[in-house]
Structure formats: C-alpha cells, structure tokens
Amino acid sequence: MNSAAFVLISILMLGAALAAATLRKLMHAALCFALTFAGLAMFFLLLGAEFVGLALVFIYIGAVAVLIVFTILLTRRDAVKERRFSWVGAVIAVAAFGTLAWSILRTESVSVVAHRVPPLTVGRIGEALMTGYVWPLQCTGVLLTAALIGALVLVMEEKQ
Amino acid sequence: MTPTLQSFLIVSAALFSIGLLAALSRRHAIFVLIGIELMLAAANLNFIAFWRFGPQQEAPVGVLIALFSIAISAAEAAVGLALVIAVYRHYRTTNVDQLDQLKG
Amino acid sequence: MSRSIIDHLWLIPAAPLVASLVILSLANSRRKSAAALAVAGQLAAFAMSAVAFLPTLRSDGFRSTHNFAWFVFGEQTLRLGFILDPLGVAMLLMISVVGLCIFIFSVGYMAADKNFVRFFAYLSFFSGAMLGLVIANSLLLLFVFWELVGLASYLLIGFWIERPSAAEAAKKAFITTRIGDMGFFLGMLWLYDRSGTLLFYDGGRGCLEPAGLAMLGGSATLIALLIFFGAAGKSGQFPLHVWLPDAMEGPTPVSALIHAATMVAAGVFLVARVYPLFSWGALDGVTPSLTMVVWVGVTTALMAALIAIAQTDIKRVLAYSTVSQLGLMMVSLGVGGVAAGIMHLLAHGFFKALLFLGAGSVIHGCHGEQDIRRMGGLRRSMPATFATYAVGMMALSGVPLFFSGGWTKEEMLHVAANWPPSRAPYYLIAIGVILTALYMTRQIIYVFFGSRRAAAKQAHESPPVMTLPLVALAFCSVFFGVVLTPAWPWLHGYLTGESVRFDPMRLIQPIFFVSLALVGAGIGLGAWMYRKAGAQDGDRPAEIDPLEYAQPALFRFLANRMWIDELYARTIVAFAWASARMSDWLDRRFWDGLARGLGAVGRLLSIFATGVDERGINAGVDETTMGARGLGRLLSLAHAGRVRVYLGVLALGAVALLLFYAWLD
Amino acid sequence: MSEFADQIFVNAKRSLLAPMAHLPGWLVQAASSLIDIFALLAVFLTLFALVSVLERKILARIQNRYGPNRVGPFGLFQPVADGIKMLIKEDVVPARADKPVHFLAPILIAAAAILALGVIPYGRNMTPFSIDGGILFFFAVGSTTELAVFMAGWGSNNKFSMLGAMRAIAQMFSYELPLIVTVLPVVMVVGSLMPDRIVAAQAGYLFGFGPRWFVFTPWGFAAFIIFFVSGLVESNRTPFDVPEGESEIVAGHMTEYSGFKYATFFMAEYLGMFATSGLGITLFLGGWHAPLPLLEFIPSYVWFFAKLSVLVFIYIWIRGTLPRTRIDQIMNFAWKFALPMSFACLVAAAVWHYAGRGFSGWFLSLAVVAGVYTGLSLLLDTRRKFAPRVYRFAE
User: If you classify domain B5-91 with CATH, what class do you get?
Assistant: First the structure.
C-alpha cells in the first residue's frame, strides 16, 4: 500500500466527515456522510479487507444513507433553528482528539509497518463465519430481524 | 515510505472526534445519529487496521468483528431513524434539546 | 409389571391436572361437562392408584423408585423422581377415595354457585397436586407440589372472593404457610448443600439412606427441625395454627378435602416421609428433633381441643378438632409410632371428611346458618345426615371396637405410653381424648338434639347427590377399622413391613379399657354438661352456653382462641408494620436525600456545560432564567434527557481517564 | 486461429502496457485500469447508441410504424443527431433547486452504472476488474443508484421529481432483495463471489452437447426468471416504469433535467440495463461459453454479446408488449411472490447440491421449486371466478 493513496483517501474521508458534521444543510450533510463511508471503504480496500469495504459501501451508502435522507424527507417540516456554532462540542472534540493522538503517538508499539499477508479471500471469511463464528452470526441475524420489526412497529401510523 | 499502523490510528482518532463533534455540537437528532455512526466507523477502521498490522491467525478476527459491528450499527441506525420519525410525529420536532422530558 | 407401573406413576397426578386444565378452558356455562370431567379425572386417579396398590402387596417393605434427571448445570445434575411404597400408596388411595366422595358431594353443594366451573377446575388442580405430593421421591419435587397445594388452598379459601373475610382468610393462610415453607426451603437447601442430593431413595445414594444421612452428621437435627417448621405450617401446628380455622371461609367441600382430610395432613405425611432424617442417630428412639415434634404436637392437641369446646361455629369446631387431631398424629410420630400416626391420619381423613360434609349438608339444609346455637333438633328433619354425622362423631371421639377412630386412638395412646423419656405426653393426650369426646358430644347435642331453634325451623334433608357420599364415607370410616384392629393389624404390618397374623387375644389389653374409659368419660361428661344446651335452664337464658354460664372468664378465654391472633397482631404484625414504616421513612428521607445530592453534582456539571455554552451565545439569558427557576428546575436539567450534555460529560470523562492512565505510567 | 481471435483484445492490451513495464507497479495498474475503462466506455456507449435507435425501431415495428428512418441509412445515425441535439440544448436548472445535489445526481448515477459494468467477464480473460468479491462489488455500486435517484428527486425541488424518486427507491429497495437472494444460490453452488469462477463453473458440456449453464437446472431457471424481472424493475423499465410514468408524474426524478444531464440519465438507464443483463448472463447463462461444443470456434466475447443482445431484445419486446403495472401490484409481487420464490430457489439449490448434482438432484429441486410455486400461486390467487352468464329477463 502506498502513502499517496493513504493521504488522498484520508483527506477525502476526513474532509467529508467534517462536512457531514458541520454543514448547515441537513441533506448535504447526509450526502457527505455517504461520501465519508465511500472513503472508509477505500481505506478498507487499501488495508486488504476487500469484503468488508464492499459490504460497507453496500450497507451504508445503499441502505443507511438512503434511510437517513428518507428520514430527513419525512421530518422536513421541522427546521431546527441551529443557533451559532456551539463551541463546547468543538472544545470537547478537540480535547478528545488531542488526548487520543497524543497517546497514540507516544506508544511505540503501534509504529509498525505492514508486512505482507496472504490475501483475505471471501472464502476464508465465509469459512470462519460458518465454523467458529456461526453462533455470533446467528445472533446477528436475530438482532437484525428484531431491529427490522422494531423499526416497523415504531414508524407504523398509530390509528387515532 | 508506507503508512504505519500509527497513521491509521491517528486517522481513525480524527474520524472519531469529528463524530463526537457532530454528536455534541448539533441539535438535530439526525446529526447526533450521524455522529454516532461516524464514531462506530472509526472503531471499525481500528479493528481492520489492527487486524492488518497484527499477527495473522487462522480466522481473520478483526475483519469478522468489523463485519458484526457493521451489521449491528446498521440495525442501530434503522431503529434510531425510526425513533426519530416516531418522535417527530409525537412532538413535531427533532431538536434533541427540546426532547428533554423523560416521560412520554 | 410393577416396573412399568412405577415408570408411569406420574400419570396419577397428571389425570386430575389435565382435567383441571381442560375445565379451565371451558365456558362458564358448561357446568355438566366440568363436573363430569373433574369426577372422571378423580376416578381415573383412583383406578390407577388401585393398580399401583397391587405390587406393594406382594412383598413386605416394598419400595421402588423411578428417578430421572431434570436438568444439568455445570457438572451437577438435578434429579427428580417418583416413589412407590406403602406409605405413598396408602395416601394415594385415601386421597383419591375421599376426593371422589367430596367431588360428588360438591356437585350438589355448589349447584347454585355461579363459578361452578372455576370451582371444579381448582378442585381437580388441588387433587392432582396432592397426589403428586405423596408420590414424590425428591424433596424438591415434593416442595413443588407442596407449593402447588398451597396455591390451590389459597385459591379455594378465597373462592368467594367477593367476601372480604374470605379474601382476608386466603391471604392469612397463604402468608402463614409461607412462613413455614421458608423454614422448609432453608432446610432443603441445607440438606442439598450437605448431602448433594434431594432424592429420598436412590439405590443407596439417596439422602434418606444411611450413606446420605451419614453425610449430614450433626446438622441432621437442625435440618429436620427446619423441615418440621414447614410441616407445622402446613398442618397447623402450634405457632402457625392460626390460619386453619379462618380457612373455613372457603366452601365446605374445600374445608373437607383440603383443610381436614388431605392437605393439612401433608405436614404429618412429610414428617413420616423424611422420618429417617428425624430419627437419625436416635438412642432408643429419641432425638432432639423428635422430642420437639412431640411437645409441639402435645401443645397443639390440647390447646386446640380446649378452644374447640368454646366455639359456636359448626365448622370452626371441626377445624379446631382437626388441628388437635393433627397434633395427636404429630405426637405419635414423635414418640416413634409412625405406623400409628399414619393410620390415624388415614382414618381421620375418612371421618373428618365425613364430618365436614355432614356439616356442609347441615349448613345447606339450614340455608347457610353456621351457628350451632341457632340449630337443634335436626335429627328428625335430616335423618341421613344425622346418622352419618353420628358415625363420624363417634369415630372421631374414638369409640372403641366399632369405629376406625377408636383403634387408631388406642394405638396412639399405646405408643405414647411406652415413650422412654417421660409419660407426660401420654397423660396429656389422654386429656386430649376426653376433650375430643366432650366437644363432639356438645356439638352433636347442639345440632341434632333438643328443640328446633331459629335456623332449624324449615330445615330439609339434602339431595342424594350429597347424602350418598356421606353414606360412603361413613361406611369407610366404620369398616376401615377392620384393617386396624390389634387382633389383625394388617395396615400396621403393611406400613411397617412386618408380617402380621390373626390373634383375637390381643384385643384384650389394658390400653383398650383405658381408651374405653376415657371416651366414656368424655361422652358422659358432655352429655351431662349439655343436657339442657340451647334451652332455658334455671336462671340461665337459652342462648348462653352452659360452660359460659359456669365459667365465664375461662369460656371467653377459649372463645377468643386464647387471644393468639391478637397476640400476633400486637407483636409480629405490629413489628412488620413498624419496619415497613421505617424503610418507607428511610426511602423518603435518607436515600432520596442521597439521590438529590447526586443530582446536585450532575447539576454542577450541567451548569458548567451550559455556562460555557451560553457564553458563546446571546448574553446568557437562559442562565438567568435558570437561576430564577430555582433548584428543582436546575436539578431537572441534569436529568432532563439532554443527550448532548450526557454525551459531552461522557467524552470529558473518557478524556480524563485517558490522561489519568497516561499520567500513571 | 480461433485462439488468436479469442484473445485479440487481451493481447492488444498487453502490448499497450509492455512499454511501461519499468514504471512502478501501481502506475502500471492505473494505466491498465484506465485502458479497461476507456474500452468499457467506448464499447458500451456505442452499444447504448445502437440500442437506443434499435429500440425505437423495434417498438415502431411492434406498433406497426416505421420508426426513425431519416438520418443516415435506416436512420442508423439517429443517435448521433440526438446526441448533438442534447449537447446544444440549454441546460435548465430550476431556480429553487439544491444546485450541487441537482448537479451531482446524474454523474453519480452514470458512474455507478459504469462501475457496475466493470466486474463482468466479457470473454476469456476479459474481466476489466477481476476482484474476489465481484458480485458484491456489483451490488455495492448498484445500490448507490438509489442514493443518486433520491438526490435527483430532492435536488430539483419539484413534487413530481420527489414523487418519482420515492416510487423509484421504493421499488428498487423492494426488488433488491429478490435480486440478491436469487444470486445467492449460484454463489452457494459455485462457492465464490468471483464472476470468473462462476463462469468457469458453468464450463463443459453434459454428454458432450448439453451446456452446463445454471439456467438449465430447475432452481437456476426459476432464479433466472426472478432475477430477470427484478432487473427489469431495477432499471425502471416498462412494465415497471411507474417512477417515470409520463401520464402521472411528468418524468419522475428526471423531470427537472434537460439537455446533457437528461441524456446522462437516459444513458445510465441503458447502462444499468446492460449491467443487469450481463450479470444475469454471467450467473445463469454460462457467461461467454458457447452453447454447443462445435460452436467453440466463435470467439467468447461474441457469444457474450450475442446473449446480451438477445436479453436486450427481450427487454424491448416486453416494453412494447406489456402495459404499466400499478405500484401496489409491483410491491405485492415483490414481497409476496418473488421473495419467497427466491428463497425456494436457495433451498432447491441446496437440495440439488446435496443430492449429488445428478438427475435425482435435478428432479428433487424441480419438486421443491414446483411445489413452492404452486403453493404460492394457489395462495395468492385473487382472480374472481366468473359465473356463467344468465339471461334473466330474456323471454
């Protein structure tokens, strides 16, 4: 993996994320959110986790982002009065980043260069999912079903 | 020079704090949700990065955990957005600062 | 053959339980089918018990178990099981026969009730649980059924839920027995902790077999006492007897089945079942636990008998007599006469059920009147009831030679007489026997003799559906004696596993004449005391009880049940109230204060957060308003679902934690 | 000879890349992908132009007209004329539109379509991006189409656009499930998400003449039908064109687009159609394999495009034949029939596999599919039973 791609992708992703966090127009923010995840997916491809990257695109851009824009559409009439930017959040966020970055930089054990690894084929993931991780897989399935039903129940029009 | 684990961690930390920023500084519920999703994404990036740079064992544990966490956060997003819609129906607002009464 | 019977033993309790489930699902109008189902279930149980009875006849001391694993946790398996042995089978037969009679009786008795169906559902449920209780081979399984019968009794006592008194009585019964069951449960846990199994008999590994008992060591006594506490609660022994008389609020068949014949006897049965636990390490048949049983039994027997003398409610008299009879059984168990106690238990099941049903028939005839002083002269208007009632009365007061009660009484006196430590129990229960005869005589005189009083005016005989069970039970309580006579004590042999032979000479023993004398004295005294009961006698008005006239203070003392309920109300209940109030106070003042304190902390955080927030924004208007709104509002801010504040504080905390760790190394 | 013809394009690309062998690897890779992309664009834009005019002519034939026949021989240059017209038209953007979104939507949608085309093997060794999770990639980029459509609807802030977008997304979401679930059996049987492997798994012939395409297994057949219908819906074509039902909402999410942006949408729709058909061919119709061994000499890509053109013709044919369905009918079909049926295909595929992929498996899976089919059709049968007509008042 080369650093040029790394730098480009990180700039793209972080810029998109920043836009998603700060843009005034909700719809634009949501689209930047999707873009962020596209960048993240590229990161995953860069890291050789192809499957996860594609799954990320599939799930987030294909489903979650669309959900979000739909929600925006459905709650459009409510224009939240964004007063001037609240600095508390910014301060806390910067503090968090500062401490995190500082503590990452002062741990030498993480400054390692990637060694060559066997390509992670979908087969291996599937094998792992179907052997050692079948129980979590089932649980996730149940969880997703529950979430589906729960979301349906929540948004169902209550009859007056 | 090729990027080290450190650089990936820094990037994910930045992503995380941007998510935190979104969750903290915006009043619209959807922004809060977006922020949370961003934070989760940062966590996933960490998982993948640690898997890639760490010792390779049989099962690609980091990748699997990332997959599960993606699935779970997708579920969370669905329910969260459904909640936003329901709340909007009930209170006619999505401003988390106005949704401050702890009873229905 | 017998193997398969044991493997299918569970079918016996299953039949009534299934019946009750089906009945519960019936519509409230399907009275006929409900009754039919209940009776059918009971019949099936009876038939199966009879089948189960056969193999136990073959060999003496027959015992066979069917154990199975319920569930496994860790490396421990929890095993339950069913047991088939003379004790259990005798109980099975008694319960199913008496139950059958009572079911049929209540078809007539409850005919007018609007919750007929529900009643039969409960009744079958009870019967199923009771049958299960007697064949359980595991203390845990027994405990489960034990609680189920408790529930059934609760439901049935409070059957006429619209009556506040009934609801009260139900609650009282439930709570009081719970107190006992707590002891039982603790004992069970301790037993499991010590012996590692709750199976009674498990091919040498059971907790009642020498190996298991050896594991218990010294704790056996305390475990036995704890279990006895539960037993005392169930069969109304002295400290916990208060619920039983109130339980008479339930319909009379219920009183007959649950609170006379079967459930209250469960305590005695339990003691008999775990008898090895009590008699473990006994030197010539005496252990601390057994001695405890004896004295509790004696106290109960005497006290209840005394109280029964002064009661005026026909069912209460019987209730107290039940309590005292249970006391007698306990005594005979305690002094080592297990067979005697169980024999009396079985006989008592028959004739006490008979008496209660008779009382029910009387009440039915007198249109719900229960005060014996307002009855009288009923022997003419309801002859069948009178005849059967008289049989029951004589059986209970223990007239020798013809009635089952007589033989069992004699047996009990016999075992009590040869108790090594002391002869005091013997004398005391002798007095108890006299008193029994006395109050039964009093009651029968009041109810059936003398002049017809208010309630007896238009009394009528009950329909055959009610009198036939009476006859059947009377028959049982007479001819059950056949297997009890010392001449041919078959049942004794059956229970103890000793072989018996016929020897008429054994009829003639001193104890026989003793009991004859005692009973005679009791009946004679009663007949003399109450010859003019309920009638004008000298300057004694009709409605005053002769005893009351003679000894007003004593009578009031007894009539008010020795003020034991009041005592409890003053002490235990009052204590409970006080502690409740204290915890309430703690909750309001102390903990709430604590919560408010925490709230204040949160509030400070929020003030900080909002303060910073506002400074960026227009002139801190919110700040001032917050100040104006005062403490409550500020408090609420901390807990006011401000997601972002929560999140911010959370993040700050995380940052702080990170810094702290960094500072550590 | 045939070998040469078969690999001609591959060799051409190699010879193009040969001179830059000394450059760093990633540069070479970028160059090769660029070549692929250019090739893709060239081929498929031409195809798009051809198909657009052919469609009009075929529709005309179906409707008993002549169709375009003025520009060039048989009106073959019609698309050129159209393109010029589109290019020189004014690009109108509504005043109240959300400009960036409105602008980005067509680009995103076209990009998605082209990317989706990238993973399809067009011939032996002719897969532009041959990646391990190709199928997943296809659906991943395909799913961005929904976002693009929404952007189009929202951006041109117009109620017709919004309604159209909503309809489009609704039906796309509903049909994405059957689409993916019908792909699963193939993936399951092949054991890979890689299109090349899937094609390779369909190589060879039964008894020397019967192609081993998955469409010839019962589950494959059923799955292919569902897949085809779902693809039809995904590309918003008749009879599932409620999103742009001219008679109801002017042109759906494309209402506010004009000029070249509209052309982009139009193109994206066709490219999407090609992509779906291409995937269908890869999954079920044996990819670039020849139907009969004696036809092997014809180059593989020819076979692929032959199959593609057949499918496209069927698309056009359907469009010319069937009327528009109601949205509720579309939804019911998706959720009540297509989805259960595709699950049945999954089960049937499993049965087929575990019964040894032989005749017994064939018949067993046929039984499964047929059983579920009849059950569903009995369940969902809502046809009114007509009573014989009686003349009450006659004589």
Answer: mainly alpha
